[in-house]
Amino acid sequence: MVIDLKTRTVGNVKVPSPGFGGMGLSNVYGPANDEESKEVLRHAIKIGCTFWDTADIYGSGHNEELIGAVLKEGDNRSKVFLATKFGNVFDPVTKKSTGQVRGDATYIRECIDASIKRLGTTPDLYYQHRVDPKVSLEETFGTLEQLRKEGKFKYIGMSEPSAETLRKATKIAKIDALQIEYSPWTPDIETNGLLDACRELNIPIIAYSPLGRGFLTGRYKSFEELDPSDRRRQHPRFSKEHFDSNMQIVDKLSAIASKRNVTPAQLALAWVAAQGTDIIPIPGTKSIARLDENWASRDVALTDEDFKEIRAAVDGFKAGGNRYPEQQMKAIGI
Question: Secretion signal: which residues (predicted)?
Answer without folding.
Answer: none
